[in-house]
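ESCALATION

Customer reports they have been waiting on this structure for their group meeting. Please prioritize. Original submission:
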Amino acid sequence: MLTRGREISVDLDEDKAAYMPLQPGKMSIHNYRLAHASGPNKSSDRRIGVSMHFMPTATAQSVGK
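Update from on-call: job pushed to the front of the queue and completed.
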């Protein structure tokens, strides 16, 4: 995941981009590997981001025990 202000280092064909304007209060759900972006937040309210990671139940922690 890129932090604010960072960019991916590959050329994208913007002719293949799908624009999805959202109304205030709406949300999008997409795969974290999907290149996506948004314009600046012009409202007085904050913009919230949520990240969920799913893994098999047999997964075991191997670092940081």
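Sent to customer with the following note: The chain has a mean pLDDT of 84.
Escalation resolved.
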